Structures are given as C-alpha cells and as structure tokens.
Amino acid sequence: MNKTDSILFGISANDWDPYGPVNLIKFDRVDTVQVIYNIFEQRPKEKMFAVALEYRVGIMAPVPFEEGLLTRNLGSDYSFAEGDWRTQWLTPKRLKEATRRIEKLESFLTDDHPTLTVLALKFCLSHTVVSTVIPGMRKLKHVEANCAASDGKLLTHQELRLLSEHAFVHGWKYS
Asked: What is the CATH number of the domain that holds 155?
C-alpha cells in the first residue's frame, strides 16, 4: 500500500525504450517502474531518474549483469549450452565487442568492489532512486555474493562519473 492506502501500481519499460514511462510518472499514475539499468545501459538516468525522484516513484533495476556479460564469465570464445537463448543474442561478433569493453572495466576493481559482479550491483545501488536490483542467480554462491554486495558501501561520485563513460547502447534486440 502507498501513502493513500491504495493498491500500488508498477510498470515495466520496454527494453528498447527506457524513456517511455517518463510521462506516466509525470501523470502520477505509477508507484514503481522496472527498467533495465546497468553499467552498459545507463539511459534511464538521462530522463527517468530525476522525474522518478520528483514523483517519489521507485525504480527496480533488472539485468544488472547485462545478461551475464558483466559477470566476466562470458569471454569472446564462450560457448553457450544447447538451448540457451543467448546463443542467438550474443553472437561471436557481439561477444568480442562486449569482451573488449568489459576488459576496460577491470581498472575499477578495488577492495570494496573486487569483482565485476559486485561493481555492477554497486553501480545500480549507488543511484538514490534505485530501490531494488534484480540479479539473476542460479547457485547459492551467487545469492551469497550478491547479498554481500549490498553492504552499504556505495560507489563514489568520481567512480560513477568515470563509469558513465562506459555506457554502451548496443541496440542488440532480443530475438
């Protein structure tokens, strides 16, 4: 329930249109928006985040690892298991491009964010409007590592500014 004791209403932004929900937020019709936001996909902060703060709308950020790319587990020569939908999405050419960009992120690793996975989660959590991050987790060790990233130690403004230079609007459509 929200402040008016009514039912909360949330929406999801289309993957290719992180700007779409802005007008709905301005019409004061939603309480939460689910929108992809991560180190590569930073467009929601361009327009949506300021409006969400103004209208007290929560942001849920799914896909903080960009479908596994920001875990550093998918290199340019990675082979997906049979039936994994990412085989169509992450072609060898795309994996090579992503790997080149991911390697540049390794300079951001520190004691407070020692892996790209932790860096990716802290990137999302470091924006005040993001109330929930929704990472995919298949193993208990992933759950434990992801929870440990929520230690209250956010990225600095300097780190966030530098990471903004790594935004990557790739336009890779899901098939």
From this structure: 3.20.20.100
